[in-house]
Design brief:
Layout lengths: L2 H15 L6 H7 L1 H21 L3 H18 L4 H11 L2
Length: 90
């Protein structure tokens, strides 16, 4: 189950190191403002989908993808986030 999350992180890191012309991921990685806007947009779309009971899974997937790319663009490693979550566990 978590393999796909690892794959998304790997994709973001690979695109960051080796850009691919025309890649949507690269477009987000190159424009922090766009990446931020997309995270906010997708979160709002998820909230709306949950409230209307439509497209929840699709919108949740969009949030996760855009958040992973935004974190990578911002120099925040997902491993550090996971460590923080582990530290919070009681």
């Amino acid at each position: 189950m978590l393999k796909i999350l690892e794959d998304l992180v790997t994709l973001a890191r690979e695109r960051k190191s080796n850009p691919v012309v025309g890649s949507y991921t690269n477009k987000l990685l190159e424009d922090k403002s766009l990446a931020k806007e997309k995270v906010l947009e997708e979160i709002n779309e998820l909230i709306e989908a949950v409230e209307q009971d439509t497209n929840k899974i699709h919108e949740a997937a969009d949030v996760i993808y855009h958040l992973i790319v935004y974190l990578e663009k911002s120099g925040i490693k997902i491993e550090e986030v996971m460590k923080e979550l582990t530290n919070r566990r009681k």
